[in-house]
Amino acid sequence: MRESLAGLYQEMIIDHAHNPRNFGELTGANRTVHVVNPLCGDQLTLYLNLTDGAVADIAFLGSGCAISQASSSLMTAAVKGLPHGEALTLFGRVHSMLTTETVDEAALVEVGKLAVLSGVWEYPARVKCATLAWQALRNALEDGDRRGEKE
Ligand code: ZN
Hints:
The chain contains 5 helices and 3 strands; from the N terminus they run H-E-E-E-H-H-H-H. With 151 residues, the protein is an alpha+beta fold. It has a 3-stranded antiparallel sheet with strand order 1-2-3, with helices on one face. Helix 1 (2-18) packs across helix 2, helix 3 (84-99) packs across helix 4 and helix 3 runs antiparallel to helix 5. The chain is globular.
């Protein structure tokens, strides 16, 4: 069972790495965040259009390993259309899934397809590859908060 699940996860990672969703520059983005993972050489520019407190549109440009590309693709597909608060909640869930040793089954159900990323736990050196896109998301969402306070 475990092995077949691992195989499925691997297929999804490869699919998203080869055919990334929401790949490209986003015209009309009002948040842009650039992040790098020096451990692996992954680079990511995340474009967000935050409108009326929700992620109206999202896209990314990046280069790097399959895990970083797949994680970016999965992240953008998952948060597109979400209210700001729900996107932050999802960030928290995925981040703890990727950085906590024990993952409970209920948490995996909550994150849905993103559970495929939990497979990186077997490769500790790749955890930063998987979290990169999520850090970028949080940065973009929090910049929005700060800007909101000033206005
Ligand atoms: Zn990487």
